[in-house]
Design a protein that fits this description.
- Helix content is 44%, strand content 16%.
- The chain has eleven helices and seven strands.
- It has a seven-stranded mixed sheet, with helices on both faces.
């Protein structure tokens, strides 16, 4: 059976099978068989390919990673567990933003605390202009999901919608900048996600609590793990269904 995941990952990376083969140090015909015949590379080659394509081994070759190894690797992706998002040191947020070059993905309802970072917008503009991809997903202020969350948090049914409009007004200034994309979603927000290249902050939401008081996970992507990829694919699913804001 052909490995379409590997084929797609190579295409998304703007590479060719020959380029991957050269990078790994194998014959191009062997690399072609990884795709057309679903052959599984040796473990050392899988690691190199996954790193090159910025995908996990468990995604590219699901049958090649044992459940025990997957569980162990996924656990190793957890760098730190914080009792609340507000307990995350400011220095960590600053480092994640400063070091990100290829991708920044943010999934929130509001996310206004991010604006506490000095020169946030110029930094995002510069990263987009340098070839990075920056995607922001805010809640749709007119959606039932946002109204419900606002009510559940006990702050009035229109409070979060008003905060979202403030956030949109702030980030609208970079909406047309190269590499920057902004959309609104109407999903139930189970987790806020802040991805900076291969590191991520996940803020699971707890009924009755505002996001700053809910726990947070600091993740670092490993090629053999699946936890980071799980949240990354969740972001992509919301992104595909989201729509441009009504400025």
């Amino acid at each position: 059976m052909a490995n379409d995941r590997l084929r797609d990952a190579i295409n998304r990376g703007g590479l060719t099978v020959n380029a991957v083969a050269e990078h790994v140090g194998v014959d191009p015909k062997s690399a072609e068989r990884w795709i057309t015949q679903g052959r599984i590379p040796y473990p050392k080659n899988r690691h190199v390919i996954a790193a090159l394509l910025r995908e996990s081994e468990s995604y590219l070759w699901p049958s090649a990673v044992s459940d025990d190894k997957l569980t162990e690797a996924s656990g190793s992706e957890v760098v730190q567990v914080y009792p609340s998002r507000s307990a995350i040191p400011r220095e960590l947020w600053d480092r994640l933003l400063d070091q990100a070059t290829g991708r920044i993905d943010v999934l929130v309802y509001v996310g206004m605390f991010l604006t506490e970072t000095p020169n946030l917008l110029p930094a995002l503009e510069a990263k987009g202009a340098a070839g990075g991809r920056i995607r922001f997903l805010f809640g749709d202020p007119a959606s039932r999901e946002v109204t419900r969350r606002s009510t559940d948090e006990g702050i009035g049914k229109n409070a979060i919608a008003a905060k979202i409009r403030n956030a949109l007004a702030y980030f609208q200034r970079i909406a047309d900048a190269p590499g920057v994309e902004i959309r609104c979603h109407a999903t139930t927000l189970y987790n806020s996600i802040y991805r900076y290249d291969d590191e991520m902050i996940v803020n699971p939401h707890v009924y009755g609590l505002t996001a700053p008081h809910a726990p947070a996970l600091h993740l670092r992507r490993l090629s053999a793990g699946s936890l980071f990829e799980t949240y990354g694919r969740s972001f992509d699913a919301v992104w595909e269904a989201a729509k441009p804001p009504k400025w």
